[in-house]
Design a protein that fits this description.
The protein has 14 helices and five strands. It is mainly α. It folds into two domains: about 55-265, no CATH class; about 290-340, no CATH class. A hairpin with a 2-residue loop joins strand 4 and strand 5. Helix 2 (about 30-40) packs across helix 4 (about 55-75), helix 6 packs antiparallel against helix 7 (about 160-180) and helix 7 crosses helix 8 (about 185-190). About 40% of the residues are buried.
Amino acid sequence: MLWAPFPALAFGDDACSSNALALLQQVDTNGYNIVRQVRDNQFFAQWLLCDTRNYGLGLAVHETFHKLDVEKLSDQTHHAYYITHNEVLKIHPYKLFNRGEIGLYIPVPERDEYFQQYLEGPSGQQDITMVLEELDAYTQGTITDSKLVDYMNENERQSTRDGVATFMYYTELYVKRGREAHPTHWRKMAGDPAYLTLIQRLWQRAEDTLKPIMTEPRLGLRDGAILAKVYSPESLAEMKLLFEAGKRQFRFDPQILLLAQRNNDENSTPQPELTSPASPAEVATPGPEVVPNRAPRTVTVMYNGAPVSLAQLEKMLLDQPDLQNDKQFMKLLRTMRDLEKP
């Protein structure tokens, strides 16, 4: 995650922040503890979507989670990974190869919003430390979102599971790239028990988070296709090789893929028209209300108080390139692109 300052939106007023915190405390104690430990309500509030029933809490917790790990729990010699108040894992970060290199394994048609956000530009210069940081943060954001399903409309869809699945896959691709192109770095990971313990724990946490929500159609967009790659024999073989080199056994739950396949089969029939946008591929939170137009397959979303179409959002980005650094705007853009897909 890049720590460049993003423009704060006018969503995070005091009343909104207080109401959002009260809801978070009610549904997700761990998420609430993360926000309270950071003690920066202004930072937390800038990610809130105050015109939605769940305040966009998954996104706000995800971003606040990074602030806790990087600024509060880590130091010059160790990177910390928060799990719960009583469980924080730490590793000594080596300077390993850039994660952007794993983009070589991703075909051009599959270079989605995650690819653009995390594998290109300055963000792509980060290494396995931040791949695992993102896996941890997406998992925590998904935990928060999964507890807010009752605040979603029946026909609403968001990419809650997609982010977790993507960073499980990126972890596998990073291990593969290390074995094939950076054997010295690969051996460092395999030979460091703290790395193997961390990878296994975050993987287990991701699976434990996904498993109970795999049958909830509202919490995924393309996760089935991603998880098929995660649990392919080739991908799992990379993890097994790494752990075997460290004299460990890599453990995984194949039921996740079976549930993903079943969920995709059950939802292969035409769905009712979406009434609110899915959250961005980068992070999983529901967005503002979507207003269907009369024209087939055309959807508008409320932005700055006015309905706008995908074409209008694309033109805004073309006219104002700096908007690509505005996560809230990019969230809406990715949502609309998902909704407009055939």
